[in-house]
Amino acid sequence: MNNQTLFANRRIRINPGVCRLIKRYLKGPGTILAQKNTEIAPHDIIGRYKITGGFSVVNLAKELNVSPGDVPKYLKKTVGDTVYKGELLADRKGLFSSAQIIAPNDSIFESVSSTTGEARFKMIPREFSLTSGVFGVVDNVDRERGEVTIKCVMTEIYGVVGTGSDKEGFLSVISGPGDLVSPSKITAEHRGQILVAGSLLMEETIKQALSNSVSGIICGGLNMDDYLAMVTSFSPSKRIGTEIGISIIATEGFGIIPIGDDFQEVLLRHNSRFAMINGNLGRLLLPSDDANSILTCRKVSLPPQIAQGVKPELSVAEIKPGIKVRLVWPPFMGAQGVVGSVDASPTTLESGISTYLLTVETSKRKIKVPYSNVEIIS
Amino acid sequence: MPHLTGFFAEFPDLDKIPPGDIAGWLKNKPESHVLINFFGNRLLYPQTIAQNQKDLEMDFAILREALKQKPEVVYDPKSSRILLPELYIDRFPPLARLAGAVVEALSPDGITQIYVKDNKTVKLAGTLIRPHEIEDLAKAGSSVKIEVGGVAGVLKINSLNISQIEGSGQKIKIADKEYIVNGGILGIIIDLRINST
Fold first, then answer.
1. 3-state secondary structure at position B90
2. Do A329 and B44 touch (CB under 8 A)?
3. B7, B16, B38, B48: best to mutate for the A interface, most A CBs within 10 A
4. How confident is the model at residue A19 (pLDDT cuts 50, 70, 90)?
5. With contacts defined as CB-CB under 8 Å, which chain A residues touch B50?
6. What is the pLDDT along chain B (197 residues), one digit of tens a residue?
7. ipTM of the complex
8. A326-342 mean pLDDT
9. For a Cys-Cys bond, which of A109, A169, B78, B130 suits A215, CB 3.0-4.6 Å?
10. A315 in reach of chain B (CB within 8 A)
11. In 3-state terms, chain B is what percent helix, strand and coil (to 5)?
């Protein structure tokens, strides 16, 4: 038995069943339908908004393979017409070649240039419904800002590093915790989703996710140079919130590190359900799918400082047999287990450092590890 | 909230060190991303320690660059003293290698006393001699005659040498110049490196 009292950092990674305030925003001009103090379910529509998608340009001369001045001859629509996605815009039939140009989206045919042959289309505004996504109680409505604050019960998950502002989407576990996700695994069907994507997120995979408008990614590790390219400074105190169009959280650290067993279990349980991610806070919010959680919301009063959620700080706790830990240094970095025993005397490691070792029992093996290379997670 | 930090937490601007500078100290250079990720994890988990020699070598490389960035952590140029806290000695063994790494990083000229410090005491561990005229010695030849405690020898220019000599008032002669210095558990370090910084 060890007479020495050994300490390690204690990290809170999962906050289950906590009551928090979340904000839902209209993404364009529109109307809030939610009423303060009413109870809502995930599919309830709390607002409607319109998105005007801007313009699209098609070079008809190039597509038809004709000179710009000849483009009007082949048009099937006239300037000012409303055109719908898939409709025929222009048609050229020739002896050796022909071309048909199809409208790329619902829009108004605004103009065609006789010098460049470019046709310009103004997209028709589309109306969208904002659903609540959660069981909860409407805490506040700000109609001017198009913002609804909802009190709801959720599980908070905190990774170690991340980037990106608030995003939302359905959680999709696309790989095992230790897998390496190739860029080709991310497709257009992941648009707007939050992906759980294995042990290392590579630069090419991030680019692929961005080009497919993925909302967020959870992974075990990131390459530090990719991370620095996204956040500009490592130090949290020097960082301001960064936004590259996607929110990313690494749950364990830098390099190839499987997502921890504790996270993977919770993420699998929430697969295909609505979630919210904030990479800058390293936080994923998983709202409760239990309708009865509304009762909890009714009972709980939230002090302002914890209402939005605050990233838990590290604390120090004593290492004792039976306590749950995660390894924070190779080999087996990211592995989790229970402390089986603490050595009674120090051991000199291959590095020459003399320290006390713990025996950590994971689901697969028993590992001897320096006490300073673990974090307490229970 | 208080939490365990460790050696690397003493250097808040560690993230500004270019990884190429760290790699410059390594004999067996790992792939760039391996080194950068190692460095990143040391910043994330500064309380962790090296389990094997490969990790320790990378830690020593980071230490050298960290000390170049913030020498005042161990070195006081006014009193010509290097003070090695126990935390460093435990984290970067053995003492001679740690002292060598500190000297390589800081390259103080002249005579510098090296002390080790634990919770209660500060002890003189040895002395570093780096002759001011090292450039001239290098021009004169590829080696230098020395005499330690009456025993003659030769040291190569561009080398860092440690003689485990205890006791005070040791007479050391390097080329024509004589020094009276104190030894200790570390001994006497003679730094004959040129272009060391």
1. helix
2. no
3. B48
4. very high
5. 349, 351, 353
6. 667 777 777 888 888 888 889 999 999 899 999 999 999 999 899 999 999 999 999 999 999 999 999 999 999 999 999 999 988 999 999 999 999 999 999 999 999 999 999 888 999 999 999 999 888 888 888 999 999 878 899 999 999 999 888 888 999 999 989 999 999 999 999 999 986 55
7. 0.90
8. 96
9. A169
10. yes
11. 35, 30, 35
Residue reference for tokens 């063994």? B93
The verdict on a CB contact (< 8 Å) between A8 and B4 is yes
A-chain CB neighbours of B94 within 8 Å are: 352
pLDDT higher than 60, residue A2? no
Helix (H) or strand (E) holding B65: helix B53-69
Using an 8 Å CB-CB cutoff, list chain B residues near A353.
49-51, 56, 90-91, 93
Chain B residues in contact with A224 by the CB 8 A cut-off are 33, 36-37, 39-40
Considering only CB atoms, which chain A residues are within 8 Å of B52? 349-351
- The tokens for A309 are 């959620």
Tell me how far apart the alpha carbons of residues B107 and B33 are, in angstroms, rounded to a whole number: 30
pLDDT digits (tens, 9 = 90+) for A277-288: 999 999 999 999
Asked if A199 is an interface residue toward chain B (Cβ–Cβ < 8 A), one would say no
The answer to whether the Cα torsion of A149, A150, A151, A157 is positive or negative is negative
For helices B32-44 and A224-231, angle between their N-to-C axes, nearest 10 degrees: 70
Strand A55-59: give its sheet, edge to edge: A55-59, A118-123, A107-112, A82-83
In 3-state terms chain A splits into helix, strand, coil percentages (rounded to 5) of 15, 40, 40
Return the domain boundaries, chain B: 1-71, 74-197
pTM, entire model: 0.84
Q: Distance between CA A347 and CA A89 in Å, rounded?
A: 78
Which chain B residue has its CA at the smallest distance from A7's CA? B4
B97 → chain A, closest CA residue: A352
- Domains belonging to chain A, first-starting first, are 55-124 (2.40.50), 160-281 (3.50.30), 319-376 (2.30.30.30)
Q: How many residues does chain B have?
A: 197
Per-residue tokens: A52: 């005007």
Q: Which two three-digit tokens encode residue B38?
A: 């190692």
